[in-house]
Amino acid sequence: RGDHLAADQQQRFSLFIAEHNFGPQHPGLAPALNRLAEWYEDTGQFRNARKTRERLVDIIRDNGTATDLDLIDPLLAIIESERLAGTCCSSAEQSAVRHILDTSHDISPARKAEALLKLADNLNARSKSNRAARLYNEAWALLDEKAHEQAFAQPTQLPMHKMLDDALDENVVSGRELTRMGTRRLSSIMRTNPMSLGRQVRG
What we know:
Elements (H helix, E strand, L loop, with lengths): L1 H21 L7 H13 L3 H18 L8 H14 L5 H13 L5 H17 L3 H14 L2 H9 L2 E7 L10 E6 L5 H9 L4 H6 L1
Antiparallel strand pairs: 1-2
Helix pairs in contact: 1-2, 2-3, 3-4, 4-5, 4-6, 5-6, 6-7, 8-9
């Protein structure tokens, strides 16, 4: 436990240095905040991770807009962190990402599809398969054939839980196989008729 506290202090000191160089609300803090949040997640400190991510979100909003594309990654990171913590349900963050994706004219199709897949993965992991299927369909429509294969043809391992006591263990993350409705059978069905995905999920 003492080793964890010493390591925490070292990680926070890096943020302290960045704050001294940039100021407490400067976008330049993003790399240090991301590193600290990742450290907290790696050691199972999900409440601290969420607070750190939320601070980054606030900084981006204060220096930009509520639909800034730079918000997507930290919001998605909060959603994943909540899943790893086994808590529910990051609905505000999911809505915020969805709003950015729906209103931004600057986001590329590939970037939008990537975010939609992450939102759908999270819903799928929470057994909300019908809602996930709609997002998978949206992502599918944005991707080319090669990207279809990369995103859907093979099952994806999705991290599910992480505990502080196992923080230094290389097997810290337990998970389960996430198919993204993308077993080869369903992937083939989607290739010919993507809208059939929802029926397969419900069937």
